[in-house]
């Protein structure tokens, strides 16, 4: 479509809808709207619009304005849109900030400011007599709700969920309110009687995720029109207030999960005949489940109940067969209780049932054949019971199944081939049973299978190559919206398999301890969240565990095509032959376990290309030859290669000597430890010398360059005059040719930019334009002719070689776009000069802002620091996990974290170390391997860079944000550094390490700061393989921000780049102390 700035608008136009068109202009660029003098309705929703400076024109007759779901940020847009006649305004899903005043908008009826960045007191509404709909949710608003909204007598809908309100639950204007949502704030105390004044009109009330106590006031019995009541995730205790609840005869949804309610379920629950959803999960209810709950007859609730959640309580006894009377049930979850007996066959009559979840009980007997009649069934989760017999053949009729989980039972027989007919099946877990026979090749027909766990059975025969024929294809009809937790075993002998994926909705995280009573093993909690529909970006398989069986034959080479596989465990079988070279094609592999087999031959060199590999176990095989010395292999411990009689090299004994796999290994291990310590000291001294020589070289080069800046523009002879010195290293290129060289660009606005434009914009690269210097060159601020501002990095001189490498690297880096990376806009080669053009970052580097806040004019409170930490982690995670080829930063530090106009973190200089190395600039090795204070310990022994090295450096940046200190500062640390100082103080009074300014801001921050310190410490583990990946770091941040655990509804939003929930399965969040199973 033509540019909107050139469009014309008829004066008779009253309504304009441009929604969902991917428009990316600024509102200033849409000046044609100024001619729409009679425009009354404007819909620009679901585009990519920005705001910028307020336009000089205004739409004075606008009554309906929908600007939701754009990229609008900063203040100003609200006041620009407001006028006395506006009736509807929606800015939902943007990043708008600032204070707002609606007192002049007397006609306003509908206002939606949800999901923005408002962090101020409530807006001023004035009389607000017309306001009917108000949604301020998902911001950080503070203030007095009662006083602000008291004049709004016409208000029907009020949503202030997910803000920062505190104190008692506020009084609200009565008379019209029907929908009230106060969830996910910090309200405390009892539910006030004043809320009962709303009973005559109230339809929905949500008070969940606060800190409320006490009881439901008896006056709420008058809420006979109330249809939905949610008081989940509070501090309520005692018995259910049935005397009040039974009077709410219109109640359709009752949610009291995550409280402390106790006692037996009262029979009077059956009086709530309109109920469609009953959620009593994660309380302390006990006794049996009342048979009358779906007892039938006029008093029963069987005709309407669709969702019944009783998980994570202390229920005992049998599952009532009368539950089948609730004929409209869609979801039934009885997991995490102490139920006994068998699964009632009568439940097979629930033709609408989609979720049948009863894991972790004490059920026995066979799985009823009658379940074959559940034609709508999607999730069958029966793990951790004592079920026996075969998998019922009738389940082949349940064609909508996408999660079958039968692990940790005593099931037997063969795995039925008909499972391959379940085209929607995404997760199949049959581990820890007694299944025998072969793995059915038909499982390869499951076009949606992403998770296959068959470990610890008695399976025999070869690994079928057909299992991998869906590799690389896109999984469809996958699980979405399910809450899960992944527990990862600690590698002990007692714990079989890689780990366990568990459906965890409605279950508090502390209850994981109860799993330990069923299968003795030590494990590490790994939290995920909700499964999102991001498997569209993945192939069909991401997890494969067939360990602890009796499989034989060789590893099929077809397995190498499983590009998206994250975890592969074939350990503890009788697999023989060589390790296929094709395994090196599995570029996303995180965990590889081939231990305890009969594999022979050498470790393929191709495995060194698995840059994301965090764990490997090749022990107890018949492998020979030298362990590869590149990639991640030098970061793995010796135990992962032991008991291979012909294997040698680091970390085992050197080749040609007595191998370290025999009974004398302990002496050699001690000797190597001493040698390693001495080597570390020596390498540390050598590294210091490298740093000194590097600084000398850089100083000499800098001096040379400055001496050259005498007669810069004389080299061009074009008559242009510039006031400052410039570099003349392009002098062997003709003047006219040099000045006319175009910029190779990745952004449309720069396509006509030439080298002469860059000269002009920087005043000949004058020192006045210089805004930074680093190991790779100087950075200049440049204002282009169109008024836009960019940053130009002028690389240090190269020898003239490496042109091809430079161009290749630029083309790779230029295509990388992410909201937390500084984008490369273009580059230019002129003679020996290499110029890179970046987007300009308004607030400069984190180093400058954090360590000199007065000069920067910015106060970095904890909210901003946390935002920066998460943004930097997200950017680094994108480089490590979403770029192909994956990019190792090599020099992650606070000066390479830049801050844009919204103080959003942008990682810079990614790819620079590899670029300069490829161009052979004679930079010191230390320059290419990081900056002192940020360098991981393994770099002192080997200058091979890895993603885990970046993780360590990120941990240092996070420490800077928490402590306010630089990584190296002799005044603070003497001969030590920040990492050593923190570890030392952690043994004393740990709170002393935090920045005093943060503690002054809010003394209650200490617990949150400790949680973030825990993340930093995990990143700073001396052992690279123990460090998390950056995706795991992101998951840890999400877990902290979830507040009340994995079931909290206040978790931070998923990144639009799609970090998959199940991409986090390998992460290892260490608990203190770690849980152990007895």
Shape: globular
**CA-CA gap between termini:** 68 Å
CATH architecture grouping of the domain at 410-662 = Alpha-Beta Horseshoe
Number of helices: 18
Task: Sketch the major β-sheet.
Answer: 23 strands, parallel
Average of the residue pLDDT scores: 80
EC number: 2.7.11.1
Binding site for ATP: 794
Keywords: ATP-binding, Cell membrane, Glycoprotein, Kinase, Leucine-rich repeat, Lipid-binding, Membrane, Nucleotide-binding, Receptor, Repeat, Serine/threonine-protein kinase, Signal, Steroid-binding, Transferase, Transmembrane, Transmembrane helix
Domain Protein kinase: 765-1040
Short note summarizing the structure:
By secondary structure, the protein is of the alpha/beta class.
Task: Describe the secondary structure blueprint for this structure.
Layout: E1 15-17, E2 41-43, E3 64-66, E4 73-74, H1 77-81, E5 88-90, E6 95-96, E7 110-112, E8 133-135, H2 145-149, E9 157-159, E10 166-167, E11 179-181, E12 186-190, E13 204-206, E14 211-213, E15 228-230, E16 237-238, H3 242-245, E17 253-255, E18 260-264, E19 277-279, E20 284-287, E21 307-309, E22 314-317, E23 331-333, E24 338-339, E25 355-357, E26 364-366, E27 379-381, E28 386-389, E29 403-405, E30 410-414, E31 427-429, E32 434-437, E33 451-453, E34 458-462, E35 483-489, E36 499-503, E37 523-530, E38 543-545, E39 550-552, E40 567-569, E41 576-577, E42 591-593, E43 598-601, E44 615-617, E45 622-626, E46 646-648, H4 665-707, H5 735-740, E47 744-745, H6 755-761, E48 770-774, E49 777-783, E50 789-795, H7 803-814, E51 824-830, E52 833-839, H8 846-851, H9 853-856, H10 862-881, E53 897-899, E54 905-907, H11 912-918, H12 925-928, H13 947-963, H14 970-973, H15 978-986, H16 996-1001, H17 1006-1019, H18 1030-1041
Parallel strand pairs: 1-2, 2-3, 3-5, 4-6, 5-7, 7-8, 8-9, 9-11, 10-12, 11-13, 12-14, 13-15, 15-17, 16-18, 17-19, 18-20, 19-21, 20-22, 21-23, 22-24, 23-25, 25-27, 26-28, 27-29, 28-30, 29-31, 30-32, 31-33, 32-34, 33-38, 34-39, 38-40, 40-42, 41-43, 42-44, 43-45, 45-46
Antiparallel strand pairs: 35-36, 35-37, 47-51, 48-49, 49-50, 50-52, 51-52, 53-54
Helix pairs in contact: 7-11, 10-13, 10-18, 13-17, 17-18
